[in-house]
Amino acid sequence: MSEAPDKSQREGVEGGSRRLILDTAARLLRSGGYHQTTLREIAEAVGIRKASLYYHFASKEEIVEAVVNDGVRFVHEAVVAALAATEGASPRARLEAAIHAHLKALHGHGDYTSASIKVFTFGETPTPESVRRVRRAYEDVWRELIAELQREGALAPERSPDALRLFLLGALNGSIDWYRPGRFDVAALAREFTALIAHGEQGGAALIGADAAGASG
Question: Which domain holds residue 18?
Answer without folding.
Answer: 7-204
